[in-house]
């Protein structure tokens, strides 16, 4: 048993819970308090309601990106839930990362002829270049360029313009920039995809501020700019600074109940911060599902003590190059001689299980962290074990076991993880 559960039924319960709420599990072999008492999970009996409450609480702020209020609130709230579970000492470790902070929480689009301001949000920086426009702002005619197809540019004067474009336009904003546009405002789509989001910034310091405007205001502007000769005089005002901020890792260790197996430590980890194309507008309800599931795992382990020692870990700064989990490894788990003397509290670990969850599917996917065939052999038994779990849990969920689990450790018919992640 991975966690040393005393009965097969306990593993089945845990598997059923995971199958319901979890999409992706990555297996990696490694050999604050001060929040309100409202929404205390310990007082909620229904597991589905607890998960819903966690997602709602964590996504209740405008942004959960590291450095914004939502991230600090999430860390404090999760700390309180772990204390309520009474699993043991809740450890809190601080690390520093650098992130783009939009001053004032948003930017502004001024309609100069009307004396009216519209709220907009700066997009992720182009490399180091943020959306800052300077004290005088950035002025020009606002022109509508649709999805950025070249035929949509016909008859429109782009030099010195501020382009209004549909968000689902790939990287065609670069076309507008190459023809003279000095900034771009994207209209929020009905649904944004990960791929489209990646296309809205570059790693190069391209000097083109880009912004997001909500659909209602964006649609109004689109209606007024349908014809090539239609223009609106506007000014953009934005300030986004790179700032060093704090993030926190939270962990609690549940001692194993078996005198022999207790030395085998297992870490189960999830991140609690969020991310979006717009740093100051990232409530990130979707990515809150990882932390929600891990809180349920913690509760399950409280009620069903494991034979092996389990460390439950919530990491911050996930979307800053995995800084949270890297900091934890540096403090506790590096075994290379270069790092071992730098560890502050060694925590020898047999297995590291990372939850990276999403909705819109009830499949469970398992992957490992290496392409090295010399190491992948260590993960193959886990793939087989989870396949057996799927055969047990599938009927409980009314599902064919082949549709419940995606085994990415030993890919079936050559379909690795990239086949299943959009």
TrEMBL record:
Signal peptide: none annotated. Residues 249-333 form the Peptidase M28 domain. This is Peptidase M28 domain-containing protein. It comes from marine metagenome.
């Amino acid at each position: 048993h991975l966690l040393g559960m005393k009965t097969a039924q306990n593993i089945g319960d845990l598997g059923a819970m995971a199958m319901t709420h979890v999409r992706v599990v990555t297996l990696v072999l490694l050999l604050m308090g001060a929040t309100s008492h409202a929404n205390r999970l310990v007082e909620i009996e229904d597991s589905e309601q607890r998960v819903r409450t966690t997602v709602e609480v964590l996504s209740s702020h405008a942004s959960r990106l590291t450095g914004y209020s939502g991230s600090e609130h999430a860390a404090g709230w999760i700390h309180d839930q772990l204390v309520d579970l009474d699993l043991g000492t809740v450890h809190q470790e601080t690390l520093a990362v650098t992130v783009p902070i939009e001053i004032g929480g948003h930017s502004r689009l001024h309609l100069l002829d009307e004396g009216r301001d519209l709220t907009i949000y700066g997009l992720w920086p182009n490399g180091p270049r943020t959306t800052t426009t300077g004290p005088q702002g950035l002025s020009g005619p606002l022109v509508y360029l649709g999805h950025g197809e070249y035929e949509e540019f016909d008859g429109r004067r782009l030099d010195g313009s501020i382009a209004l474009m549909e968000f689902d336009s790939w990287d065609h904003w670069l076309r507008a920039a190459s023809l003279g546009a000095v900034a771009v405002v994207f209209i929020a789509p009905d649904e944004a995809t990960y791929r489209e989001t990646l296309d809205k910034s570059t790693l190069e310091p391209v000097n083109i501020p880009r912004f997001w405007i909500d659909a209602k205001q964006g649609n109004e502007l689109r209606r007024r700019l349908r014809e090539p000769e239609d223009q609106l005089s506007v000014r953009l005002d934005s300030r986004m600074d790179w700032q060093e901020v704090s993030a926190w890792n939270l962990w609690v260790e549940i001692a194993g109940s078996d005198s022999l197996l207790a030395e085998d430590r297992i870490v189960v980890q999830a991140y609690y911060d969020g991310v979006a194309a717009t740093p100051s507008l990232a409530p990130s309800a979707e990515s809150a599902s990882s932390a929600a599931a891990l809180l349920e795992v913690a509760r399950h382990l409280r009620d069903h003590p494991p034979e092996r020692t389990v460390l439950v870990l919530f990491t911050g700064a996930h979307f800053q190059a995995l800084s949270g989990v890297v900091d934890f490894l540096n403090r506790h788990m590096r075994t290379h001689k270069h790092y071992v003397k730098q560890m502050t509290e060694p925590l020898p670990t047999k297995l590291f299980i990372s939850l990276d969850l999403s909705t819109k599917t009830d499949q469970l996917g398992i992957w490992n962290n290496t392409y090295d065939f010399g190491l992948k052999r260590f993960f193959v038994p886990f793939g087989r074990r989870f396949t057996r779990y799927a055969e047990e849990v599938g009927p409980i969920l009314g599902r064919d076991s082949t549709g419940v689990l995606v085994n990415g450790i030993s890919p079936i018919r050559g379909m690795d993880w990239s086949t299943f992640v959009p």
